[in-house]
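Hi X.,

You mentioned you wanted examples for the new student's onboarding notes, showing what a folding record looks like when two proteins sit in one file. Here is a clean example. The first protein comes first, with its sequence line followed by its structure tokens.
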Amino acid sequence: MPRWLPRAVILVLALYACFQLASWAFHQLVALLLNILIAFFLALAVEPAVSRMSARGMRRGIATFLVFLGVLVLGLGFVALMGSMLAGQIVDMVDRFPQYLDSLIGSINKTFHTDLSRLAIQDSLLHSDWLQKYVQNSATGVLDVSATVLGGLFKLLTIGLFSFYFAADGPRLRRALCSVLPPARQAEVLRAWEIAVAKTGGYLYSRGLMALISAVAHYVVLVVLGVPYAPALALWVGLVSQFIPTIGTYLAGALPMLIAFTVNPWYAVYVLVFVVIYQQFENYMLQPKLTSRTVDIHPAVAFGSVIAGTALLGAIGALIAIPAVATLQSFLGAYIKRYEVADDPRVGRRERSTTS
């Protein structure tokens, strides 16, 4: 047997063990890494406000605290407003539910010539096996729901702490990163950081503009239908549908439908139809155009980046895909050599290049 063979076998086994250990550690830390990634983009989003306050003489830590405090106060105020409104509407709907049920049963009896009664339906539901199993499963799932809520609160706390440290210690973090790089690379890193801040801010601006347009459109529909609390509901739809990826549209549309149901059950159907139509208009017409203007990427690239981000990281990937792709595109654009294109009918007319 060659002398090098035992050493080679030991080396291969050691490398395989290190790979398995690294793979196990990565899978264990993937949730933490995703939280850090979200916190980094949140820090980029508040970087302009913190830097502006710091340039006026305020300590960076205090400026970051004030920015986060303002965001927290606005968020809690919005949640409290929507919670009080929702609680009142649920109580009103429960009180009026027998009237809705009688009206529905009357319509069914008139249309299909049946002889249904509310008392008979209530008695059959109360003694059904399905309801008993549902109550049992709900009772056993209380602990799971509590654990999920506590886990979500801990996740929000983790993201908040990391984003606060990233924003408060931004210059120190950049200095530490540049200290291990040669001067030429330092300029590239700082340029990439500046681009990331600009693109993240542009992305949030586009989201805020779409939230405003969505709120105005839904406000008009709710006012026409006579649904109460139209301003608060329109604001809810605009914010939730834009800043909660993937499921935000469904969460945003459920509350106006619930409130509209208390006015007229058919109004809930009208609201649902409008939410679906507007969502398609936003996905295929409004969002690509606004994103291409504020983040400066092609609408097809923006749409594809959201799909790719969702496939890779789920809801988190959908939220950060556009600013990440815009940052990468702008940074690589400086290193791609471009040539003059000859006049040819197959490439269209030459457009004037504008510099900003």
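Then the second protein repeats the pattern, sequence line and then tokens:
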Amino acid sequence: MIPDVIDVHAHFTPPTTPEEREARWHAMREAQFLAPEPYQWTVDGTLDYMDRAGVAMQLLSNIPKTPDALRASNDYGASVVADHPARFGLLAALPTDDPAVALAEIERASSELHADGFAVTCHYNGVYLGDASLEPVWAELDRRGSTVFAHPDAYAPASMGRPSPLLEVAFETARTVIDMLYAGTFRRFPNMRLIVAHCGGALPALSGRLHLLGTEAWVPNPNGLTQSEIRDHLARLYLDTAATGTIHTLAPALAMTSPEHIVYGSDSGVPCSTEHTLETNRHAVADFTGLPRDQLEAIGRNALPLFPRAAARVGRQVTTA
């Protein structure tokens, strides 16, 4: 992969006190997320890693679970971008448990914060992304031709004694996107581009099963999806490479979508990612043998057409639609 890649999957945290970091650390450990020490995100530390890893820009996201914290987080993310416009972009978080508040935040993030795109959580305070209440939110994002980054809840309770980031995030992602598929979200809103975190989680491995069985008579299909629609809607999704840069996940992803829809993601900025895991995954993407060299190198810039304002700031010309 060429240097100066665009990283669509990078997290940030607004400034916290040592006491807040300690409290969050203990809560994580109680949920079987056995981080060895409290985690602190910093701009300088992130820029240092980006320089050493050859990352030109990170699209930052953070999705708190309360309206006030979410707005404050978006404000802080926008300030980071304002201070470093050629190195960072903002994916403004949306509170998808309240459509009216989400619509207001879309407008505020666009007009005041100049966000490059939006970030949503698969399961936000009890509401999944395929819920019918979100119809006006998807309609507005579609009207704007927005790029939306969908991420599972990595801080959900442990499952069978194992922390959510290890396994459950992959299955939550698959359940959520499949629910959106059958809800007709992708059919009704084709102008909205969705990036799915972690190479789609378990979704690519299940896509063949959906093609085979998804329209059988025994499967509830209220919107009458056809086999070709299932195939086409899944192929339109964008998948990032965060913690999924090996053949085990990239091969199923490429069976579901096209090489142009694989975008680079690191998953930096969170306690479950260390520099060792970030670098191991980055090199795994670079060493992947399932694509010719030109398509492999393009992974690092496939996100440019999705974020034209960010591309302009980083000084890259968008040549594909």
